[in-house]
């Protein structure tokens, strides 16, 4: 096995485990992201015509079938139907097959077929018109992606598109003596093209200095209204960890996302973050930064020089 193939298999395995972990934790948006990204990588390899591939045609067929199963699990997570679904325990059976793809010679455990890459987005039924949700930064890797900072989100009325699934907000944690809980009300975000954003919502996460999640990720519902240069949310986020238990250097991230009808995916437009020394009762406005989301806070670029910010209000709860 060449070093290139070994590295490729390691990346596939890591992506598979991330998706399954998110799935088991109930972080469905993140699981769908990971499954769809990995499925596209596997489909590309399964259909590759280059001569330097170490995979046989039979192995490519198996890789394509694993991609199909990832798509099926992704569709099942998005489905509101009570039909038979592809379950997580089924998907987990495929991890050793992917890991040992060069030596696997048994019959594939599921009756599926590889689906062409260009056809897969339309092949799998999902209730949101097969919308794709991209992981932070993935849109920068798409060849056909255009710069949206000066343009808009695309023409069209929000009423022309199916409503997005409601948010994934979590309730407040139980109180503990001497410990502080934080409620963050996301009031509004200022954007010069606010009125053009379709189905906008915000993903909230708490990361350490290495960009590792410290709490479950939460999505707000779609914004309540758009007015002039503001998108209004007026929604409360309950931090899923006592403030005193957050690690040094942690930060709370807010990723503004919206649907792009021309490309049929949900994309991150910009992000903001709040560091631990900014946790204090009352209102706060924080700056907006250009995508991709930099969870390590090493290469930050302001979205605009205009006075447009994310407006928040913090409430501390302590017994």
Automatic annotation (TrEMBL):
It holds the Pfam family Aida_C2. Gene3D superfamilies: Axin interactor, dorsalization-associated protein, N-terminal domain, C2 domain. Keywords: Coiled coil, Developmental protein. The gene is AIDA. It comes from the Eukaryota. Belongs to the AIDA family. The keyword Coiled coil applies. Acts as a ventralizing factor during embryogenesis. Inhibits axin-mediated JNK activation by binding axin and disrupting axin homodimerization. This in turn antagonizes a Wnt/beta-catenin-independent dorsalization pathway activated by AXIN/JNK-signaling. InterPro entries: Aida_C (IPR025939), AIDA_N (IPR023421), AIDA_N_sf (IPR036818), C2_domain_sf (IPR035892). This is Axin interactor, dorsalization-associated protein. One of its GO terms (molecular function) is phosphatidylinositol binding. GO terms for biological process: determination of ventral identity; negative regulation of JNK cascade. Residues 32-59 form a coiled coil. The keyword Amino-acid biosynthesis does not apply. Interacts with AXIN1. Residues 141-151 have a biased composition (Acidic residues). GO terms for cellular component: membrane. Residues 170-317 form the C2 Aida-type domain. Residues 141-169 are annotated as: Disordered.
